[in-house]
Design brief:
476 residues; Rossmann fold; five-stranded parallel beta sheet; 19 helices; DNA-binding; sequence-specific DNA binding; nucleotide-binding
């Protein structure tokens, strides 16, 4: 939509002249010949910019300027044939973006208008950014890490276009929240956002779910049904777990994306819609293409703006931000008081790998709140968490993230701690310290080969790397 400019000028010949200056730019213009007419036109026309003459027959133009307020107020260029330094200062103080003295040349007029409109556009973008990215949040996405800021920037840049967004990331990283952020940041925000999980729909029903069907098209089709494509007309269609889609249906999807047209199951009539596509998968799409499970032409049609969501374990302190937000959200849902979590809980959350990503963290938070009545979350309240890759269990009920039982020996070397006999309470040491010494001895015996030490300790190398990092963080 072209920008709108209101010209407030009581001399008709000058008003029409200024209007003619803007004809080549494609800007939509309207004229008001008095102050009262200008005030009425501002309400009905909603201009992006006002060219405002100061000397009007019924009032001073600066009075109009002083009445403009709110976040959506237009830019104002004050125009007068009686310029003084004091008047210019008053105009700028009241919010004018520029000041022009009559007579005005066409080029000068157009350049000033263009600059003021750019300034308004920039101000709107800044305001939009502050509204959406505040306190580590971007719509429903949470996290202040550098990787997530890059994601937010891509969404911001891509939102205004119709280009297809292709989101990749592990299960539970928030791909649907990312897709919804793309929709909410776009001009389609007030129109439908329709999400379809291709992995959750039986193979023989997915075409009907996407494109809809007519009554009697197949057994069980007892009425006409509009599919996700029709429901999303004008808005965004999100296809989650796209690589799970049957390869025979992929050709129909490709044609739909190329033309915007599709046929309902059981119909020969074509339906045309205006849909923005956002797709997601937790697989590597190129591997799927090479394996023959995903069409190469469909991949290149969809893979226009890629967004790679990082795993939760790669996001540093975002884990704490997300956990805190989830505690507040779920506490409200469960009518549970929540005042915060201890430093021990934060260290434990940071040390864990979260193989199930944000979804697993949410389940852990809900479990903690439901099974404990306290409002302050301590470490012993957090449930034991499985380590997905190696099958061991990490238990957060000991100091400093204890997550495995000590083995009795490393190869043929017996641990010094194993034969140590406790004679008095002063001999008792924190279990994490014994574990630390034991792991360090194992690494030394393996000539600093951590994968080899991990194999002898029967844990994954990532477990040892995380432990070393946690020890460094607490300075031991």
């Amino acid at each position: 939509m072209p920008p709108k400019v209101l010209i407030v000028e009581d001399t008709e010949s000058l008003a029409l002249l200024y209007q003619s200056y803007l004809i080549p730019t494609g800007i939509q213009t309207q004229i008001a010949y008095s102050g009262q007419e200008a005030l009425k036109t501002i309400d009905s026309f909603s201009p992006d910019l006002i060219v405002l003459d100061v000397m009007l027959p019924d009032m001073n133009g600066l009075e109009i300027l002083s009445e403009l307020s709110g976040d959506t107020k237009p830019q104002v260029i004050v125009l007068t044939g009686h310029a003084t330094k004091e008047m210019a200062i008053d105009a700028i103080r009241l919010g004018a973006s520029d000041f022009l003295e009559k007579p005005v040349e066409a080029d000068r007029f157009r350049i000033t208008i263009n600059n003021a409109l750019k300034l308004k556009s920039l101000a709107q973008e800044v305001e939009k950014y502050h509204q959406t990215y505040e306190n580590g949040r971007y719509y429903d996405l949470i996290g202040s890490s550098r990787t997530m800021q890059s994601v937010y920037q891509i969404i911001n840049s891509a939102a205004a276009s119709k280009a297809t967004v292709f989101i990749t990331g592990e299960s539970g990283t928030g791909k649907e929240l990312c897709a919804r952020a793309v929709h909410l940041a776009s001009p389609r925000a007030k129109l439908p956002f329709v999400a379809l999980n291709c992995a959750a729909i039986p193979k023989d029903l997915i075409e009907s779910e996407i494109f809809g069907h007519l009554k009697g098209a197949f057994t069980g089709a007892i009425a006409n049904r509009e599919g996700a494509a029709g429901q999303a007309d004008g808005g965004t269609l999100f296809l989650d777990e796209l690589c799970e889609m049957d390869i025979n249906l992929q050709s129909k999807l490709l044609r739909f994306i190329q033309t915007g047209c599709y046929q309902q199951v059981g119909s020969e009539k074509e339906v045309k819609v205006d849909v923005r596509f956002v797709c997601a998968t937790n697989r590597d799409p190129l591997v799927e293409v090479q394996a023959g499970r995903f069409r190469e032409d469909l991949y290149y049609r969809l893979h226009v703006i890629p967004i790679a969501l990082p795993a939760l374990r790669e996001r540093g302190n975002d884990i704490i931000e997300i956990a805190d937000a989830l505690f507040k959200k779920i506490a409200k849902e469960e009518s549970h008081d929540y005042t915060g979590m201890s430093e021990a809980v934060k260290r434990a959350f940071l040390a864990y790998a979260w193989p199930g990503n944000v979804r697993q963290l949410e389940n852990t938070v809900r479990n903690t709140l439901v099974l404990n009545k306290q409002s302050w979350i301590e470490l012993e309240m957090v449930p034991s968490l499985p380590q997905g890759s190696a099958g061991e269990t990490i238990v957060y009920k000991q100091p400093h993230n204890i997550d495995m039982t000590l083995p009795t020996q490393i190869g043929n070397t017996t641990s010094a701690e194993q034969s140590r006999v406790l004679k008095k309470t002063q001999d008792i040491e924190p279990l994490w310290l014994i574990e630390k010494r034991y792991i360090e001895q194992a690494i030394d015996l393996c000539d600093n080969n951590i994968p080899k030490a991990a194999a002898l300790l029967d844990v994954s190398p990532s477990t040892i790397y995380r432990k070393i990092k946690s020890w460094e963080e607490i300075g031991v």
